[in-house]
Amino acid sequence: MRQHKRYRGKRIGTKQTYAGKFKLNVLNDMKTTGASYSMTANHFEVSEIRTIANWNTKFLKAGIEALFRSKGRPRYDMTNPNQPKETKSLTCEQPLEDVK
């Protein structure tokens, strides 16, 4: 559960995440209606106008895939957590070509 700070009755410090399909729908609606960023943000209840502008920039630079990418560090693969990782140890006599 997230902890929320309150300032004058409003929650602050929370980060809203949106699905890629929602982002695409917002951009498609904005394009078909010719609405501005602020009108689109108000219609879809997106709190920051800049959020939609960022989605549009990502879409124009990298295409649809950019809207569906997740942020942050990838999750750790927990399929075999007990399997030790293979490590290579070097000796002074071993040439570097043999390590590759």
Structure description:
A two-stranded antiparallel ribbon has the order 1-2. Helix 2 packs across helix 3 (49-62). The radius of gyration is 23 Å and the shape is elongated. It has 100 residues and is mostly helical. Strand 1 and strand 2 form a beta hairpin. The chain has helices spanning 20-33, 37-44, 49-62, 65-68, and strands spanning 5-7, 10-12. The mean pLDDT is 78. It is built from 4 helices and 2 strands; from the N terminus they run ββαααα.
How large a portion of the residues is in β-strands, by DSSP E?
Answer: 5-15%
Low-confidence stretches: none
Roughly what percent helix? 40-55%
> Largest sheet, order of strands side by side?
1-2
Structural class: mainly alpha
Based on CA inertia axes, which overall geometry fits? elongated
Q: Give a count of the beta strands, DSSP E runs of length 2 or more.
A: 2
Q: Could you provide a short overview of the structure?
A:
By secondary structure, the protein is mainly alpha-helical.
Give descriptors for this structure.
100 residues; mainly alpha; 6% strand
What's the structural blueprint in terms of helices and strands?
Blueprint: E1 5-7, E2 10-12, H1 20-33, H2 37-44, H3 49-62, H4 65-68
Antiparallel strand pairs: 1-2
Helix pairs in contact: 2-3
